[in-house]
Design brief:
The complex is a heterotetramer, with two copies of chain A (334 residues) and two copies of chain B (329 residues). Chain A has eleven helices and seven strands. With 334 residues, chain A is α/β, with parallel strands linked by helices. In chain A, helix 2 (53-60) runs parallel beside helix 3 and helix 2 packs parallel to helix 8 (218-233). Chain A is globular, with a radius of gyration of 19 Å. Chain B folds into two domains: 4-187, Thiamin diphosphate (ThDP)-binding fold, Pyr/PP domains (Rossmann fold), CATH 3.40.50; 200-326, Rossmann fold (3-Layer(aba) Sandwich), CATH 3.40.50. Chain B is globular and about 60 Å long. Helices cover 37% and strands 22% of the residues of chain B. In chain B, strands 3-2-4-5-7-6-12 form a seven-stranded mixed sheet, with helices on both faces. A five-stranded mixed sheet of chain B has the order 9-11-10-13-14, sandwiched between helices. With 329 residues, chain B is of the alpha/beta class. Chain B has 13 helices and 14 strands. The chains are: A alpha/beta (334), B alpha/beta (329). At the B-D interface, helix 5, helix 7 and helix 11 of B face helix 5, helix 7 and helix 11 of D. The complex binds thiamine diphosphate (2 copies) and magnesium ion (2 copies). The site of one magnesium ion has 6 residues of chain A, from strand 4.
Chain lengths: 334, 329, 334, 329
């Protein structure tokens, strides 16, 4: 990743292929997960990000290693886009001790302190106050870092959302809020859960600049994120991006999808972030079929290796069950 | 003789909901995804088609808001059934439940009545990890002004909603998520009222009283079966109501067996098991032949992997060990 | 009260004097309460409404007996304006068994089922979802009633506020929200707690018509309330009124008022609802000094009688302590 | 010999806050009205002038929001002290406390540490009625991942914050609202670290163990004094830490006295008293000469009038009666 400071996208061939590579990695990784779920290798809730890859990938371009990320239970994409290894994430999906959370969390609770990746949160809206606090800590410590918080449009109905908007705006905290508006919260369409479905307006009312972007277009997302992150980094206070996107798969593996038409899904698929960006790359001559194929092979290898790693990884011994409930080093934190 | 039929716990809940709405037009169901989606655990599948979206009311993600709206609607003459997907999410609504629903009658000097039913899923066993697997029934059982029940059987799941809806006070119904696929018998017609306040003796025995409820009942019965092969005759009590507790059934049993093992999926410290153990120890002090045993969840946020989740929660093995301890075997 | 249906104020001499009488009753009642507090006849928290009387009195004009009211811990004014007897309220302040809540609640928890007065709520923001539910019940039962919910501007920061706005607007429920914006939540000035201190905007963003009114002017308040209540009653969905007002006294009897200047208070007192309306009545010749004096005597008598009643009222026997925790008539509710 | 001086519980809390902020610039105080107003119970009066509004941070009325922000700030390297005015309002923040603060370390496989201190007032005695008077310490004591303490004395109020801030895990401090005006001695300098995990024997005795904490300690000591005049020699234990509980001190005492009375302002059913009674009954089964007694709040939302509030909460009389019962007098 290039330094994000100037707030603009430099769409070199190299950068474009990198964007595609990351999206394809997420796609391939998650398709594998779906398969592994039917094989009962992965259990619990599995929420796929398929269709929404442009968001995590685009936004992460605007973030630096020192920035922090807070995500949701639908966070495989964010973890991978952030650069957490596919093997660590896959091992976590298996619940193995080599997983990014030692297997404790599974699909919904991926953490990585090294990447400042603060979850993984299975309480809708629960990550928002956390992001506010991380940003508050940065501000109080005089650190020029951004905290980026992802959440769905469903979360915007929760009280914690509004409280967080207010705190961030009131205290001018360096938070970049990214609402991934995929139109549904489980089976509830946005128009059936918000009297005013314009989510950006619910941030703007707190005096926070709020942008709406096409979340199926990775370059648009990156551009919006760079602009917003630049402002946040400059100390201008929080920024909000509402990204219009869509999930191609069911909410979780338990969802019978009674609430939407297949045709609607098909329509959106035509605008899929991978398919569309690939087409653009080819149409403009930025990339050739062989580039795409090379990336395909590359990500397949990564995903294959991740599965091999996860399969071979050890289980946490049962004796360690109560490990990490409390710190063993009481009184010893830095 | 009443004809019997076999249905799942999920179907029992659904039938009970359907019957309640058909019987009384003041009854309606409200919660996240109870309508179009059919309920997070599919309990209300088909009901929106039958009763319409006014009475099978999908809500925004606003646990405090719609639970409070349920309280208001109950005050206003309706009989709302509020579904909170999982007990972990109910933490967002506790202000409304504890500060308002539970206090209104008393604070108003008896003028206000809140005939609200709140249903929620509870418990582990589905590898949903630390934010979807807890058992906080004991918190609700601590609060004066609430009635709290937890059907462990298909028949109780079918019957308890009826009684809950008759109650002029707020009733919280816990449905253990691991029970929804269980099958069991219910009568083909009628006779569904269940006494919310009484525990049920699910197995009579002479040697030890195993006291449990909800998702742990099956495990207790499994343990009792194995123990029986060893010649240990366990009495298994299903509490059904966890506030109020049915002292009489518990104490009568312990007076007979002189030994008690409590099985509770809640964490041990300060859980419901503590209250039951304390009561037995206080009120059967001179009868007990051994200390009351508690088989509870290990004090850890429930972890994701199957083997750790299993190790964290009560299992038949642990129950048997505890029974053996009370019998010094 | 005249039928409120036409949504306009008819300021006859009779009506004007009635408005003044009600404001003066509240004022006199609460001044007595402050005195009784120092005598330790009233204990716990006592939140006085002095300075804000125009709000309760003005809004209540727009409500019918079948409407419902939800208020806060600062609700003596609302209770009296609703027509609950001063004696019942005073006995409640004493904690006597003849109090409006059998003495169980005290100052913060006045209830009266007969007047559809649903408290009295000492959880800031806690009454909002309740009001939504009462209105939902009315709508589902096809009853043309209004639920009027009072709360302070501090409550607007709570998540429960935003969730309630959304539910009411989404379901087009017959609620009249009245935010009594007195500029402070305890010691926190609005500008220090809301990034956007325009409270009406926080309702309007949900698509709810929101009006701002001079809460020191009882006629303005009545007019706004009549307009809003008319729309609500007509099935147009919820309405919101932000009433700019001021409390002349400390937040509660424990408050040292470190957070505001005496001069600010004095400025506002000059615009006091009673003083100003009285002056207007005299200036326009609508009333004479003798009318005012008659009202003064009248309310003094009512308040004096209330104190006598409360003093003489019995205490609840200790044996009744656990009464009304649960219904004695389990299974017997209508 | 260390010089001693007398201050109030409120002043002790304030001194502890001041010292913490002076010592460590990562420490800050955040909550409703902690700044300009000086704190609902005046604990932070003067601190905003001394440390500025960044570090004595008034928040909007957003319990979930600012508690969650405290968690985030702790993750981000600060040492926040979040004040929630009253335990009843903490219900609005329980999602953040239980689902996030208490689980993060475990869910993240040990990567995340939440060194957050949450202070809140608790308890009855000030005629604040059913939405301001409860004692829900037991709820917090039930949750793995939290540490919970409740200073009953001025010296502990002065010292415990220091230890809480050293802790890498979330610590909840309960301050009983009826204690703020109490006076007590603290050392003039130094020596303030308090072991959060150990109970304190406040009075040694041979005949009965009275086990209590927080606002009930004084009442227990009063009862013990009166009992002593009757020739009954009570040992009074102040738990100080309610999660974890100090089994050793409790059990050692009961092994000696063979009788225990627990005094807990929480409601009886499922309260902390139940856990302590259960532990003693389990672990001192063969030592106990009488059933463990519990003196708790009556199961009613706390009413406003003085006489009913007094009747609803533990009082020395009731403690004495319970002691008499354990001694069969
Ligand atoms: C507080 C809370 N309530 C309910 C749920 C159950 N739930 C999980 S995901 C979800 C939908 C969330 O929708 P949205 O925020 O739009 O995110 P998306 O799943 O579409 O990415 C619901 C209701 C939860 N996890 N937490
Ligand atoms: C949930 C909750 N948090 C905090 C408090 C303590 N408290 C009582 S009144 C108050 C200020 C409320 O201000 P506002 O809503 O503006 O109403 P006002 O008192 O000005 O009428 C606070 C913080 C409370 N009662 N409930
Ligand atoms: Mg969504
Ligand atoms: Mg105010």
């Amino acid at each position: 990743m290039s330094r994000a400071e100037d707030g603009r996208v430099h769409l070199t061939r190299e950068h474009a292929l990198e964007l595609l590579r990351r999206m394809m990695l997420i796609r391939s990784f998650e398709e594998k997960c779906a398969e592994l779920y039917t094989q009962e290798k992965i259990r619990g809730f599995l929420h796929l990000y398929i269709g929404e890859e442009a968001n995590a990938v685009g936004v992460m371009q605007a973030l630096e290693p020192e920035d922090a990320i807070v995500a949701t239970y639908r966070e495989h994409g964010h973890a991978l886009a952030r650069g957490i290894s596919a093997s660590a994430v896959m091992a976590e999906m298996y619940g193995k001790a080599s997983g990014s959370s030692r297997g404790r969390g599974g699909s919904m609770h991926i953490y990585d302190a090294g990447h400042r990746f603060y979850g993984g949160n299975a309480i809708v809206g629960g990550g928002l106050p956390l992001a506010v606090g991380l940003a508050l800590a940065d501000k109080m410590q005089g650190l020029t870092r951004v905290t980026c918080c992802f959440f769905g449009e469903g979360a915007a109905a929760e009280g914690e959302f509004h409280e967080s908007m207010n705190l961030a705006a009131l205290w001018k905290l360096p938070v970049l809020f990214v609402c991934e508006n995929n139109g549904y919260a489980m089976g509830t369409a946005l128009s059936r859960s918000e009297s005013n479905p314009d989510i950006a307006a619910h941030a703007a009312v707190f005096g926070m600049p709020a942008d709406v972007v096409d979340g199926m277009n990775v370059v648009d997302v990156e551009a919006a994120a760079r602009r917003a992150a630049k402002a946040v980094r400059a100390g201008e206070g929080p920024r909000f991006i509402e990204s219009k996107t869509y999930r191609f798969r069911a909410h979780s593996m338990f969802d019978a999808e009674l609430y939407r038409d297949k045709s609607e899904v098909e329509e959106w698929k035509k605008r899929g972030p991978v398919i569309r960006f690939t087409k653009w790359l080819l149409d403009t001559g930025t990339a050739h079929e062989s580039d795409i194929e090379a990336i395909e092979r590359e990500v397949e290898t990564i995903v294959g290796d991740a599965v091999t790693f996860a399969e071979a990884a050890p289980w946490e011994p049962v004796d360690d069950l109560t490990r990490d409930v409390m710190s063993p080093a009481k009184g010893a934190v830095r | 003789m009443t004809a019997m039929r076999t249905i799942t716990y999920r179907e029992a809940v659904r039938e009970a909901l359907r019957e309640a709405m058909a019987r009384d037009e003041r009854v309606f169901l409200m919660g996240e995804d109870v309508g179009r989606y059919g309920g997070a655990y599919a309990c209300s599948k088909g009901l929106i088609e039958e009763f319409g979206e006014e009475r099978v009311r999908d809500t925004p993600l606003s646990e405090a808001g719609f639970t409070g709206a349920g309280i208001g609607a109950a005050l206003g003459g309706m009989r709302p059934i509020v579904e909170i997907m999982t007990v972990n999410f109910s933490l967002l609504a506790l202000d409304q439940i504890v500060n308002t629903a539970a206090t209104l009658r008393h604070m108003s000097g008896g003028q206000m009545s809140v005939p609200l039913v709140i249903r929620m899923a509870t418990g582990a066993g589905r590898q949903l990890a630390a934010q979807h697997s807890h058992s906080l029934e004991c918190w609700f059982a601590h609060v004066p002004g609430l009635r709290v029940v937890s059907p462990a059987t298909v028949a109780d799941a079918r019957g308890m909603l009826w009684t809950a809806l008759e109650d002029p006070d707020p009733v919280v119904i816990f449905e253990h998520a691991a029970l929804y696929n269980d099958e069991g018998e219910v009568s083909a017609e009628g006779d569904l009222a269940r006494d919310l306040d009484r525990a049920a003796v699910r197995r009579s025995g002479e040697d030890v009283s195993i006291i449990t409820y909800s998702g742990s009942l099956k495990k207790a019965l499994t343990a009792a079966d194995t123990l029986s092969a060893e010649g240990i005759d366990s009495e298994v009590i299903d509490l059904r109501s966890i506030r109020p507790l049915d002292n009489e059934t518990i104490l009568t049993s312990v007076a007979k067996t002189k030994r008690a093992v409590i099985v509770d999926e809640g964490w041990r410290t300060g859980g419901l098991s503590a209250e039951i153990a304390a009561r037995i120890s206080e009120l059967r002090f001179y009868d007990l032949d051994a200390p009351v045993e508690r088989v509870c969840s290990v004090e850890v946020p429930i972890p994701y992997p199957r083997h750790l989740e299993t190790a964290a929660t009560p299992q038949p093995d642990g129950i048997m060990t505890a029974v053996h301890r009370t019998l010094r075997r």
